[in-house]
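Narrative progress, year one. The postdoctoral researcher (J.K.) led the effort to move from monomer predictions toward full complexes, under supervision of the PI. The following entry was the first complex the group processed end to end, covering 513 residues in total.
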Amino acid sequence: MKLPSPPLPKFLRPTPPRPGDGNGDGADRSPGNGGGSTTTAPEPKKLDKARGAAVEGTASVVGYLDERTGMSPFLRGFLYRKTPKGNTWYYTLGSATMFAFVSQAVTGIFLAMYYTPDASRAYDSVSHLTNEVFLGELVRGMHRWGSTVMIILIFLHMARVFVFGAYKYPREINWVIGVVLLVLTLAMGFTGYLLPFDQRSFWATVVGVNINASAPVMGPYIADFLRGGAEFGAATLPRFYAIHMLLLPVLIGALIGAHLYLVSKLGTTAPPWVKGEKKSISEETI
Amino acid sequence: MADRPPQPNSKQKKSRYTADRGVAGAYEGETMTRRGLMTGGALAAGGIATAAFGLPALGFAVGPLLENQEPEVWQDVGPESDFTTETYVPRVINIVAEIGESGKTTIYVRKALPDDKSPSDKSGVEPLPMVAISTRCAHLGCPVRYIQASRRFVCPCHGGIYDDQGAVGGGPPVRPLDRFYTRVRSGRVEIGDRFSLNSKLERYSPRDPSQHLDGLWEYLYPSRPST
């Protein structure tokens, strides 16, 4: 099966004949989305040559990769999958959450280049990267506010899925994965809150760890695990840092992969106000 | 079906012998196929290899739960004459030495009265000479402040209130304020380890805030393995 190639950008297309510019018979009237039609032109212009080279070059690179990876059926199925009638902007909340996560990951990596996870130097390193490093205020601000944005978006996404009934058969597992992602995202917020190591983050973490300690039976062990000991000590901040930037991002990334796999495999649900025609329903269920 | 030789248990269960199951190249009395042995062996080897690095790493992460890291330290907080039976005097001690300012905490110290229901020292013989009260609220660990006029400890976070013995007077705290061991050495007051109390001011090993110590609750919040 041959798919149509994507449309060329404007500057690579042949110029259409101007009105009153000679007879216009020799001008190329091809619409500019066919790869092979350019060779039939009697006198290829410079732009046509460039266009042909660009198309062929892209095609050969794509072909090389596809021959060796077999990715194109997967990508075509993933990127051009059919969605039910009546999709709305509400359906973008999941992607928005994911891009918030990507933004957090990127800004977090760069913040880690200046941050020192040591109880006596953490505050100074945060102060340094905020006030002295070029654009540090902006990058830290994006990370700090981005965390709030991500938590708002993940709740909105969850509400959308709940209200639209998209958690029902056969998508229960995706709901469960989503709930785990919600918990991990909140854990990200909790562990990241300590890292600036000012009074607010210190006491918020003291209270947060003690809330964990209030769980019967397991509570004392959870609290000692989080603190790395009986008291908030030298081990606590590196521990939170490692959980925040190594353990949780890897888990979230892996679960986002599973979440997306199931979304592409099962498809999205139609909004509840869209009534399916019987014919289209029977086609879709196949 | 009728032509086949009688196979015992053929309807209920497969024979455990490979020879009976018609596996090619089976030995007499063999119960495991070579493929099964290799599969199981590979899985076991993989499991052992994973456990070889997984279990030490896990133990490394949870180790602080199991070992008592802090040796007993006595900290000098001033001469005995600084303290009276009338009021609490604030003093700053190190809870965790190596993390600077954030490892310090305020405690309130006064001389013990004969009618204090004060716990005795570790050997259980002599009463503690001083009452040294931790400022860590027993609700969620915020720092409490002593207000002399009302003779109450008050927590700023969620409104916990304690009387001048550190027992709960109101609000969300689940048990009295923690205390520290005290002793007097050649006229100087020294502060030792933390201990927790239940509502009858009986001594327990140090617990985290929010953990009840009365009645059945005591068993739902186990003490640290290291204490």
